[in-house]
């Protein structure tokens, strides 16, 4: 007996209606990207392993899908690592390529490789799938699309302001009101590590802090202790766990903690710049909020950090994120190239729009009219009309077989095609068509011009 086919965990098939809804999101996002002056690029689905490894921190590296070398990959494997069952060492000898984990590091590689062809500052957008060997759960998949917009070659904080506006524009046009754009600054986090005397443990500190919404305050403190951060050090930043109020009140609270840190105060200054600019240009439907525990756990952020959360009544992880990365291209040999970028979590956005019923009905409507097939003579007459309708930008099709009327009508109902057109001998002789509204059941005889008008 043939084995039942399946797909890997964390991946999905998409039916026509789902694809139509996803394309709707893509179209809205692309439209805003273009309005803001971003240009499209694409990069390969897999990169050389050394391009990706070491760029996402220890946790990120573990989630990168490695691709086995072609042919007899064990021939070049490290025998010593194999016998020692050292998976990390043996991986490098049997795998030279890996599926991309995100679009930011490949973009940095692209900028360095094509630097002589690029006019800086360079604004690019990219919508492509990425892969992560994560544990599948609601809103978290192993294969998913990312949608990134980045600017490289400018240190101006006006870029951060524009990205806040871009988030607001996209979600407003998707009718997804009430999202929160959380902002923090890596310099603020560095300042925290500095004032508690744990500067050398910045990565351990931020990775733990970033898990606050998942494991809670006690869980974060426990992980920090496990990483060697002392209890006395943790006590010094205790106020950040209960920081409340509006943007200005939160800023005032962290100024007290960071007053002795030059780096931390610089981060505060940058946050204030963005917030004051947004006050002058109020957002349409989104809210900008300061979250000093926001770290995102990635090594390459050096300034602003963004994360977008769904409206409060929706139980979903972040639906967007990003930040400033002054040193990212430096890892590929191009120094002093500052960049900042954001990403949209398209799959999670889809789930939120679905849950809230925000997809327009017209999104999933494809064919506007189905011509009933009564036989070859009638089919030819119908297909000529179909071609003329398509020339008028009306989506129409002919049922391919001269099947029973009931079967053809059921097909139209299942496809949710709003109109059915009958063209038998009587209609052909009169050069007319019988147009049936599948919702109301109303029928009328029309000529072609009237048909176009009715279907427009």
Automatic annotation (TrEMBL):
It catalyses: tRNA(His) + L-histidine + ATP = L-histidyl-tRNA(His) + AMP + diphosphate + H(+). GO terms for cellular component: cytoplasm. It is found in: Cytoplasm. Gene3D superfamilies: Anticodon-binding domain, Bira Bifunctional Protein, Domain 2. L-histidine binds at residues 102-104, 132, 146, 150, 296, 300-301. Pfam families: HGTP_anticodon, tRNA-synt_His. SUPFAM superfamilies: Class II aaRS ABD-related (SSF52954), Class II aaRS and biotin synthetases (SSF55681). It is an enzyme of class 6 (ligase). One of its GO terms (molecular function) is histidine-tRNA ligase activity. Its main location: cytoplasm. Its EC number is 6.1.1.21. Keywords: Aminoacyl-tRNA synthetase, ATP-binding, Cytoplasm, Ligase, Nucleotide-binding, Protein biosynthesis. Residues 1-400 form the Aminoacyl-transfer RNA synthetases class-II family profile domain. Signal peptide: none annotated. InterPro entries: aa-tRNA-synth_II (IPR006195), aa-tRNA-synth_II/BPL/LPL (IPR045864), Anticodon-bd (IPR004154), Anticodon-bd_dom_sf (IPR036621), His-tRNA-ligase (IPR015807), HisRS-like_core (IPR041715), HisRS/HisZ (IPR004516), HisRS_anticodon (IPR033656). GO terms for biological process: histidyl-tRNA aminoacylation. Belongs to the class-II aminoacyl-tRNA synthetase family. HAMAP family: His_tRNA_synth. Homodimer. This is Histidine--tRNA ligase. It comes from Salegentibacter salinarum. The gene is hisS.
């Amino acid at each position: 007996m043939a084995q039942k086919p399946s797909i890997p965990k964390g991946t999905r098939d998409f039916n026509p209606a789902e694809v139509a809804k996803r394309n709707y999101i893509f179209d809205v996002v692309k439209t805003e990207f273009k309005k803001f002056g971003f240009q499209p690029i694409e990069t390969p689905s897999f990169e050389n392993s050394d391009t990706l490894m070491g760029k996402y921190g220890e946790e990120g590296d573990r989630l990168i899908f490695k691709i086995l070398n072609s042919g007899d990959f064990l021939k070049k494997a490290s025998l010593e690592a194999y016998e020692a069952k050292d998976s990390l060492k043996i991986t490098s000898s049997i795998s030279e390529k890996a599926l991309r984990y995100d679009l930011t590091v490949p973009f940095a590689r692209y900028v360095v490789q094509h630097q002589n062809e690029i006019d800086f500052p360079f604004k690019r957008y990219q919508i492509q799938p990425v892969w992560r060997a994560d544990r599948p759960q609601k809103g978290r998949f192993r294969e998913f699309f990312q949608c990134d917009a980045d600017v490289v070659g400018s240190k101006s904080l006006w870029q951060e302001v524009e990205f806040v506006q871009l988030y607001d524009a996209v979600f407003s046009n998707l009718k997804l009101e009430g999202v929160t754009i959380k902002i923090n600054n890596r310099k603020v986090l560095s300042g925290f590590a500095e004032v508690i005397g744990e500067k050398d443990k910045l990565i351990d500190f931020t990775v733990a802090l970033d898990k606050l919404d998942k494991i809670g305050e006690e869980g974060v403190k426990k992980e920090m202790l496990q990483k060697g951060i002392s209890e006395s050090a943790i006590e010094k930043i205790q106020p950040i766990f209960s920081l409340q109020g509006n943007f200005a009140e939160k800023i005032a609270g962290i100024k007290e903690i960071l007053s002795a840190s030059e780096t931390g105060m610089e981060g505060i200054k940058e946050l204030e710049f963005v917030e004051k600019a947004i006050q002058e240009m109020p957002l349409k439907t989104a809210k900008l909020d300061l979250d000093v525990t926001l770290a995102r756990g990635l090594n390459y952020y050096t300034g602003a950090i963004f994360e977008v959360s769904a409206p409060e009544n929706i139980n979903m992880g972040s639906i967007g994120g990003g930040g400033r990365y002054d040193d990212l291209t430096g890892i590929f040999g191009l120094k002093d190239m500052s960049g900042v970028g954001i990403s949209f979590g398209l799959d999670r956005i889809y789930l939120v729009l679905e849950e809230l019923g925000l997809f327009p009905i017209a999104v999933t409507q494809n064919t506007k009219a189905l011509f009933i097939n009564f036989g070859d003579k009638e089919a030819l007459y119908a297909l000529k009309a179909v071609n003329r309708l398509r020339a008028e930008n009306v989506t129409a099709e002919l049922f391919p077989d001269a099947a029973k009327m009931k079967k053809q009508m059921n097909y139209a109902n299942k496809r949710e095609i709003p109109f059915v057109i009958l063209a038998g001998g009587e209609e052909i002789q009169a050069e007319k068509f019988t147009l049936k509204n599948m919702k109301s059941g109303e029928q009328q005889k029309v000529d072609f011009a009237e048909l176009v008008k009715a279907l427009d």
